[in-house]
Amino acid sequence: MNKTSNKTQHVRAPLKWPGGKYKLLDRVYKTLTPGKRLIEPFAGSCVVSLNAPYQRFLINDKNTDVINFYKCIKNDKNEFIEYAKKYFNEKYNNKDEYYFLRDEFNSTTDIIYKSAILLYISRHGYNGLLRYNLSGQVNVPMGQYKKPYFPEKEMQKFIQLSKKSSFQNKDFELIMRKAEKGDVVYCDPPYVPLSTTANFTTYSSGGFNNHDQERLVRVAEEISAKGVNVLISNHATSYTRKLYSNAQRSEFLVRRMISCNGKNRNNVREILASYPARGATK
Fold first, then answer.
1. What's the whole-model pTM score?
2. Who's near 209: CB < 8 A, 6+ residues apart?
3. Which of 33, 43, 47, 102 is surrounded by the fewest CB atoms within 10 Å?
4. Are residues 144 and 235 in the same domain?
5. Is 205 found in the same domain as 93?
6. CATH number at residue 121
7. Is residue 14 part of a domain?
8. Nearest to 106 by CA among 131, 81, 124
9. Which domain holds residue 101?
10. How confident is the model over 78-92, as pLDDT tens digits?
């Protein structure tokens, strides 16, 4: 990939995102290749696209609320930023207001209102989690923040990204199959759990099981054979090492929260699996 800026120049994402790639951007960018368009089937916080020097972007996530939030920034720009900012003051930084707004988020059909509350929950909720119960409702408890940060600078940067981006809310396979020769696909799927008790991937309904992990690899191999570069992130386990056996792989340690206890942070091993472009699109 082309030479990128130093870490100190990277912009964080508007939404807080446990497991986000902000601290790994330089490593990811060194592995990504140049291309005409970056496609993110699992965009999450969007921090990879937000700082990447591509000319066009296809941004997708299974979480409808997240994509609607990005569309609000794209469509309403500064008007939406000013609207969302009003929830970031002392009046709303207490349990009564937090749980009232969380209930509002789970019941409203007003996309702009819901998107503003999503940002509020992301910044006021416990540990920046975005977690849904089996009924599809956000159930994140309130965090303990004296003055939650309002990400105006980050949203302004996102406005610039949105001008050269399209946003989708579909299954990852449908998005990956839109890739054309010369595109680059970066996949940051829900990670394989490190243990049977460490599985925290429910940021949208439906989950992501081993069948989906294997489907992702199958599609990556198929589109790489048509001239598309694909890169996948995941935990490094015996399962993923076997899963990515046909890929070019690198492993490294990352300091992460590994349980629901915010103080329980440890080094975990991650893997980057690269499927270089081969062949040509007919």
1. 0.90
2. none
3. 33
4. no
5. no
6. 1.10.1020.10
7. yes
8. 131
9. 67-153
10. 999 999 999 999 999
CA 172 vs CA 61, 97, 159, 163, 211: distances in Å? 8, 36, 24, 22, 13
Q: Is 210 inside a domain boundary? A: yes
Print burial letters for 119-153: b (CB count within 10 Å at least 16), e (below 16): bbbbbbbeebbbbbeeeeebebebbeeeebebbee
Instruction: Give pLDDT tens digits for 35-67.
Output: 999 999 999 999 999 999 999 999 999 999 999
The answer to the question of residue 280 being in a domain is: no
Give the end of a domain, one of 87, 119, 153.
153
Question: How many domains is the chain built from?
Answer: 2
The domain boundary residue, chosen from 153, 174, 197:
153
What does the DSSP 8-state code read for residue 193? P
How do residues 125-150 score in pLDDT, each as one tens digit?
A: 999 899 999 999 999 999 999 999 99
Place of tokens 């720009």: 77
User: What separation in angstroms does the CA of 37 have from each of 70, 97, 184, 275?
Assistant: 18, 42, 6, 16
CA dihedral 25, 28, 33, 37 (to 10 degrees): -60
What number of CA atoms fall less than 13 Å from residue 37's CA on the CB side?
20
Q: What's the token pair of residue 125?
A: 């909720």
- Which residues, including other chains, have CB under 8 Å from residue 94's CB and lie 6 or more apart? none
Residue 195 lies in a domain: yes
